[in-house]
PQQ-binding-like beta-propeller repeat protein
Amino acid sequence: MRHTVRTSLIGLATALLLTGAAGCGDDNSQDGANNGEPDAYSAPDWEINRMFPSQGATSKEFEGCLYSSPMPYERDGATEIVALGAEGTLAGLDPDTGAELWSLELPTPDGEGVLSIAQPAFIDEHRILIAYHSVPGSAEEVDPNTRRLTHRVAVVDLQNRQVDPAFGDIALEATVDGNDDKTVSFDPAYALIRPDVEIGKVDGDTFGKAYITSGNARDIQPWHGWAFEIDVDAWHEQGADASVSSVLVTTPEPAENCGPEGSSGSRERLCGGGLWAPSGPLVLDQPGGYELVLAPGNGQLDLARNDYANTLMRTGPGLDFDPACDPDACADFDSDAPSNACIESCENLWIPRLTGQDDEPPQVWDNRCDGLTLFECWQQLDYIGGSTPAYVEVGEYKTLNYPTKDGHLYMVDQTHYGTQFDRLKLVENCGTADDPCRWTWAGMAVTEPVVAWDGDTPIIMTPTFMPDKTHPAGVVATTIRATDDGPVYERLWEFPSFDTDAATERFRRHPSRMTLSTLGDEGRQIAWIVDIASGPDNKGQLVAIDVLDGTRVFETTLGDRGRRYTVPLVVDDRVYVSSCSGDFGPGHVEGFQITREDSGAADGGL
């Protein structure tokens, strides 16, 4: 099993030719921290140079931030970099200068504007499917908190640089059966499409099914986790009326059960279960088809009412979900303290618990969790969800590796979700009595791990962050070791090393996600990440890390902040990242080139 499509959005290849040509740009920067050694680089013969934006450059500036990642598209043998601004401008950029080659505006009803956050998905080599919102045309800023009027889906033909007339665009609508003999209707004003769009295909599909998921900005009530399945083949062949093939809601509670309208549910367990992980659901290949793993966030957990907040849910084509829990063991389900007998019986539903190496409850700096159960504590802290698990198969074990806002990595049995193999603390809980947590809602991990391999040994890299000035954070690498009692985590390295000052100065905000590439003839594996700006200069750092030992390979300063949750794009000897000048814009793509200092000849791959 492997998930099917995520890498298609973050790089054309991981072992392409590196030319070694002279660097083009105005910034040859290798600064920052490497495990406490400010001047140490583990690839001293290589350098990273800025291509754009630079002084006098003509690179494209977008009105809004770039909440999504740059995408590669090959036209007539030449690569374009495709980027989507939050204001709904989709543009093709020159890979050398960042200059606009073409652009188009996403369609909305007359008089309405666009808010676009989610990463589009390729449905074939020329077309991408985009999920976005229409908003009041009078909105002064491209702000995710702007009222959403409709949630829309369009297909763009990149070859012909237009919204594909064979599809057009649609507005998402749904009403499903809810609890208490009521219905629950999708309300665009109380949902936000943040996650990546993902594609699943079964045998015989041309385009497959697209999965569009949402929660709500700031957990404003009434809110739920919504998943829409778009049958792209049916849409293409039969028209818009056939496009939405299925809908799932994670907490089917009528609005009157969700607390006061317009209030925040982030510290409540009423409704919720938002599907807001920026990296989207996980698609796992299966013979002839796929499974879909959804990760609902905070909210109401009650198996008797089909409320599944703070869990992992296994479903698939059609979005039919059956937790397959033992009805007798779960008959008296306690939402504050679910019994292990019930939890462990579930085949398709994972419920977190204190098991494994790290079985201590959160130790919170302000004592707000004293006397509370684990779920009551998570309610107070606005933990657990927000990430996407990584699938890793080691020997006989098939595992999901799920980082959560509580700063832990959970290892779940992919064959039986009720089995939790291990729970490892990656970082401490944010805040101390003398250094309160700056953002108590943020947690310490919102990401999707990347997995590299050293022979048969997996290296699971999880970015963490820390909104205080006391506790270390950064990229934490772990592996899975088989024991007589089952698989367990083993910590490998951290970047920066957690016993250095750099680890308490850096990674103070949500970083980007990570992507992999290789360097040189020997195929050295490196992982790229953006440490989003948190210092006084308001500049992010693009870093490449050796996946085997956590040493720094490259580092350079961005022109702006970078953008959390996005993914660096590696194409040949170039690296492209989404960046933003302020909270809401303007935004742009920043481009960098890797060169070898001592040779102008071709030398391996990046």
